[in-house]
Design goal:
Chain lengths: 113, 115
Amino acid sequence: DQQVKQNSPSLSVQEGRISILNCDYTNSMFDYFLWYKKYPAEGPTFLISISSIKDKNEDGRFTVFLNKSAKHLSLHIVPSQPGDSAVYFCAATVTSGTYKYIFGTGTRLKVLA
Amino acid sequence: NAGVTQTPKFQVLKTGQSMTLQCAQDMNHNSMYWYRQDPGMGLRLIYYSASEGTTDKGEVPDGYNVSRLKKQNFLLGLESAAPSQTSVYFCASSNSLPGQGNEQFFGPGTRLTVL
């Protein structure tokens, strides 16, 4: 049972436009969410996170939105740059009780110059 | 400051062989983790360690063992390799305890093929 889903395996966007990557989760116990970026032959690197008490967190070109009622989060990248081309993973975690840290399956973003 | 390093980068084993994947971090992090990544799937947690000398099972621990004898090292052992263990293995560390939700720092991965 995939508790964290990224339903779009790939996405192509023109340089300078907005990239929107989506993530859905099923477990209402998740209370902290993170996005990681992964280049080929490298490990994932942390990008941005959001607590369930917020609905938006912004860091430069990256903004994460959380809709708890819909169990949905999204990552917006504006403006998109060719260097943003990578695989993006969302992750959801429970910060109390039994440890859970679940990754989605990833979305491959290609930013076209 | 090398961050998280993993050895080897690549390994090919025959079914039934054993081996140990090594992970080291120089950030003085308390917690360390082992994940595997398979095509079309996210990273899945195999084992984690909240501190030196303690380990706990993750989502997919069967067929693996771990040891955390030193704070900076976390070893993943395959007792008797099976083709189903063909995967890319990532080690990670974090400054917080597992469950505090903080970011994890990942190594570059070990690509393991079991024939």
